User: What shape does this take?
Amino acid sequence: MKEINYWQAIAEALAEEMERDETVFIIGENVQEAPFMATRELIQRFGPERVMDAPLSELAIAGATVGAACAGYRPVCDLNFADFIYCAADEILLKAAQQNFAHAGKVNAPCVFLGVAGGGFGTGPEHSHVPSAMVLNNPGLKLVLPSTPYDAKGLMKTAIRDNNPVCYFFHKKLMGLKQEIPEDEYLIPLGQADIKREGTDVTVVATLYMVHHALEAAKQLEGKISVEVIDPRSLEPLDMDTIIESIKKTNRVVVVDEDTQRCGVAAEIGQQIMELAFDYLDAPVARVCSANMPVAGAEMEKYCIPQVEQVVAAIQSVCY
Amino acid sequence: MKEINYWQAIAEALAEEMERDETVFIIGENVQEAPFMATRELIQRFGPERVMDAPLSELAIAGATVGAACAGYRPVCDLNFADFIYCAADEILLKAAQQNFAHAGKVNAPCVFLGVAGGGFGTGPEHSHVPSAMVLNNPGLKLVLPSTPYDAKGLMKTAIRDNNPVCYFFHKKLMGLKQEIPEDEYLIPLGQADIKREGTDVTVVATLYMVHHALEAAKQLEGKISVEVIDPRSLEPLDMDTIIESIKKTNRVVVVDEDTQRCGVAAEIGQQIMELAFDYLDAPVARVCSANMPVAGAEMEKYCIPQVEQVVAAIQSVCY
Amino acid sequence: MSNLTNTDKIELYRKLVHTRKHDELNVRMASEGKLRTFYHSAQGHEAIGVGACSVLHKDDYLYPHLRGHGIPYVVGKGMDPKPSVSEHLGKATGWGGGITGVHIVDKENGIFAQGGTIGSAFVLSAGFALAAKKNGTGQVCMCFVGDGSVQRGQAHEAMNLASCWKLPVVWVVENNLMAWFTPCCDSFALKNIADMAKSYNMPGKVIDGMDVFAVREAAEEAVDLARKGDGPSMLECKTYRFRPHSEGRPDVCHYLPRSEEEIAEWKKRDPLVLCQKKLVKEKILTKNLIDEIELEADEKAKETEKFALESPYPDPSILNTLVYAP
Amino acid sequence: MSNLTNTDKIELYRKLVHTRKHDELNVRMASEGKLRTFYHSAQGHEAIGVGACSVLHKDDYLYPHLRGHGIPYVVGKGMDPKPSVSEHLGKATGWGGGITGVHIVDKENGIFAQGGTIGSAFVLSAGFALAAKKNGTGQVCMCFVGDGSVQRGQAHEAMNLASCWKLPVVWVVENNLMAWFTPCCDSFALKNIADMAKSYNMPGKVIDGMDVFAVREAAEEAVDLARKGDGPSMLECKTYRFRPHSEGRPDVCHYLPRSEEEIAEWKKRDPLVLCQKKLVKEKILTKNLIDEIELEADEKAKETEKFALESPYPDPSILNTLVYAP
Ligand SMILES: Cc1ncc(C[n+]2csc(CCOP(=O)(O)OP(=O)(O)O)c2C)c(N)n1
Ligand SMILES: Cc1ncc(C[n+]2csc(CCOP(=O)(O)OP(=O)(O)O)c2C)c(N)n1
Ligand SMILES: [Mg+2]
Ligand SMILES: [Mg+2]
Assistant: This one.
């Protein structure tokens, strides 16, 4: 085992996959400096042909990613902020997502769209979003949301090897998070939830930084309410089985998600729970999400994105 | 009263508002011919300064719409296909949506984004979507989805007068639908649901063309199940009161929506119903939506978008 | 061009005729209400796809413009246009498997994608060209777009990126003076789109898009540059669409009917007529050969129609399996 | 420029100094960890915003570039930069009400919006210019962007649309040879961005962006054209950023440290130094006046800091009311 932090885990996964497979390359704005992964390792090791600093042209970057992917490469496209998915929505949400389907499975587009997501630094409305629902609402894309260094590495390797376009959003607040991970290579399959904490009274479903909010809430409630925290790790594919199993035990559930509440991930999971486990529910599924507003910056941010107290309150509200 | 069809209703509303308010103008590709409203009335009456054929430049068209709106105009931006919202996602889903919020309410952006939406003609994945959830997931935009000529006219007039950006999606399959409407001017407030059919056994919530599927299903079930059909007409603002009132009576509900199922409108309404009326529900909220895939074209389309039989089956499934 | 043999020249003529006949077939079937999707006729545009694609190798990447939904390009490249009608009927034998009723894909022949939003061609083709460069096997990408497409941001970003990275791509702009109902004079501030190439420091040329030989020659030059590693270029082929934007829709400029005289004037330079005249004058084409080619193309079109009508629809149960690749 | 009075010239110098002092204030507070958001210093860029905005009327539209988060532009236009620090602290007295910690808006003075995605400036400003044209009162829109912004599709679409419609807009490109960590030589295929204006058949000029008088003169000319109804133009002002892209971030070119010599070379042409030297040489500025202006600007900066620190945060209960305008 070795200790590694979240961004190192991502960088390590990229390096290992680039080493293993010549068709993998990174493309984006300033990826050589890799501003959000704070590493110059990749450019130094693989050179500018495989770590490609592109012009400030999201349409071209994302479009070229899709094209190169169709033609047999496995590009990793760094969007910088995940929010910038809006700047190439046609290319990502339509072209990448629909490539396989719209062409009868004759050509697919294996690529990864990387973006740093979420709040915590007051960076304001166009730099603090976790645009998950938009991705899920456009089938054909997979969606990975790692909450730990271990997950970040194992899921990235799988994402790169996946034959489909995968959105991989990592979280600003987790960059420095440390964890022991195996020395040896490992992969984590997409669609396999991880029970981050076992409990018996209530199930909390959360991804990315919200997993840590959920764990913190669970800690605060220790002795009073026994909280099970489930981290689906990917939302497409989504491991509903693990969630439903847990609910059959707890009969109560809170979904915590940092995307905007309305038409968000929590509503989808809530509705699926209702469809699959209505008779097991002792209380309506509660959700804690970003408020139905843009994410404000600076001091006002905390009123827009989920806080630990809200998670605690939601848990208490379903455990009446 | 006079008989008028759906597209004439939209054109009439535009003409009346352009007459009333000099700041209203139309901008888009080929709006002079108005391909989807099949009318040359507006260009002939208001001339090219107010019915502006723009280059094939969605970013510029939508961006200029937002800019002109901030500066005191009330542009109606015709996106052609509603799907093309992906081609100007930053401009519409971020810039228009967040203008008021991100600038502390000091400058707002009153404008309408018009798009023809939905399936029925086999036009394939980038020309058949009803991208509602994407709009709702980005607060700051309103969303209007008219199902009849009467609604289309009254809601369009209100949308133009609204001080916020409004997405107004009208449906391909409804273009020729006729209805008697008042000779005199009328407006329909946003956020006021219309009960399109009264019933006692089950509530069906639907918008746009799906209202007609719901009405057809209700007719087929006549004598067996008494179906109440509620058309919210706008999804932001959304009249949950009317929906909840109905559920208190019927205790059963089906949401029919033509957007993609996952993270769609039906999940949001379902979740809200669970939050607001859990104890009134005798069955889980059922949803009938477009399948979790792109909308195929030609013969395959019908397997992707909701069909009347599915609505009938869903109603029966909650009325066990 | 000087190095074209008589056979080459006849072959180009033959391809023009086949393209036209297949286009006419689609137009007729559209008018009979048989096509399940819209159809954008290529009549008037044939020389561009045919001429330019005739210089491509099998493994070169090709991104077709929407005109003819691929027909001029596949015929130009020497492929079979047979799956065209099948696709428009939504049949499983269509070139996109009948899933969309429109799109064309043929991996073996370098066609990897087609999109329904105008302008995507630019950025996706930059990606194919990037792959070509990385492959290092001298492949090029040829991408066809309309004048309207050039008005989109994708055009700018893709041309800039491709030029910075010296990607082997040739952008062939089919300038028919109009995008949908809006004429170029109202949506460009400059006269020749080819001049925009200067912004990207790449060659840009104006070509007579009605002259299949002129197109072929220019394409050959541009493709050579790209193969040599000298980067992208743009060819602006001036042309005209003889039919409405899409079948069954009004044929207007802004909102007034297109000028009959203008259409008639351009039809005098019908690419098939120009080519035929030239080859007859050069005594390469005989009346017999002309009839023979016509007959052959008619036969081929009939075959295509029959094939399409008799083909099965896709099995709807596959739809679910197509959302994600295995 | 010939028609600038001595007072005008001193005023320009004064504005440069005020801009620099306010920028230094933000930089210091960023280094002290007091700012709640990132800060993109304008040091090196001052002459552009100050020079160009000094020719604007109060009701002209202004879209600032991100450098200095508005300071050079508002100072240039004669507005008060006081709300700058407040915004960065997220205070209610910030120029965007402290909601985002970044954006500037001032309806009375023609600032209607600012976006966080680079390039939006182009398309939104086309909209302001469209409004200006419709108003018919001779207003213009001046929009500042970086070289990086020009690489986005928005630039192309907006310039094309504005030129087709002869919209009164002046695009001022602050070309500091670099976007984030990527140098222009790797992300443009041509040398002078101003040459891109040809694609839109509009004037495009290269200006010494370190010379406030040169900028002012070029801006005056371009604004006159726009006011007369002659449409848009582009001014490419060559400049250099003296500090890292944003405070506290590495200062690299691709991934290697920026050349110290290059920075030193450019600093010799510091816009404040250039202006001061010139006016001293012309005997318009005296040592006394220089000191006086320095003092005044220091005072003003102190005031700004105090004002910001003492200002209240917004009341969070308003957030809900801001999502939709009443
Ligand atoms: C992004 C986008 N905007 C609008 C359309 C609708 N549309 C389809 S074809 C077309 C005109 C295309 O013009 P051009 O590129 O010149 O090709 P042409 O049809 O003239 O051959 C338009 C506006 C679209 N498909 N995609
Ligand atoms: C659409 C978009 N892409 C990327 C970014 C991240 N970003 C912020 S500033 C910047 C560089 C801008 O360069 P330039 O326009 O030249 O302005 P400069 O900072 O050099 O003054 C980048 C890439 C962004 N904000 N928006
Ligand atoms: Mg055209
Ligand atoms: Mg720059």
